[in-house]
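Spend some time on this chain, tokens included, and walk me through the fold:

. . .
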Amino acid sequence: MQTRCNTPGACGDPRFIGGDGNAFYFHGRRDADFCVVSDRDLHINAHFIGKSGHSSMSRDFTWIQAIAVLFDGHRLYLGARKTGTWDDAVEHLEIILDGEPVYLPADLVEGAKWTSSRVPELSVTRTKAANGVLVALHGKFSVRANAVPITEEDSRVHRYGVTADDCLAHLELAFKFDALTDDVHGVVGQTYRSDYVNHFDVRASMPTMGGDATFTTSSLFAADCSVARYGVSRGNDGAAVLSELSAVTCASGMDGKGVVCKK
């Protein structure tokens, strides 16, 4: 199953769908890193690539090229390799766990997956013969990722400025979380909080979240954005796990249960 732009995650320039089911845009900045989810024992950053917008725009075009997932002292990298000419039969995804590359079987076999010997609860399953995976940490999260290019037609229509040496390969992502706390934050993470209030204008064609500085990190693996929660104990008040929703079947597009419903 491919990721879809109507499930919790990030798609396009980046269009996010939050835990409350509402869509919004967060453009960030090209060549910068932002915390997407930050919780007591889980932190996800995203690296943005981009191109300068045309003269009538006040911002760059941006896409998510890679994510870094911090959990239980481990570091997981999932990214799309830079490439010129796109071939969907060629693997453009790169996965690295604690500095060691993850090598997946070359062919798609139903149910085939890679399981970490270092982290037995972590698995990576191919969802396509190339450029599509489901990364899952049992009891914590699932991330479905596709590596995709900007096509020549999309570039022509939207004036993205794709060049022969860079088709702006990036990730389309869908998230499912199993045990976030009510203190979670980040661009998407905050939308899973019980006290989150959506202030976007629902009539806007592109409801956009600002506050780049709030979510900026110093590097892809740094949990140092101003709303970072990772590794910080906040006591009972901030550690109320959202277990009351864990048994609710949600329209997550991830074929499972999780905290991805409208509140």
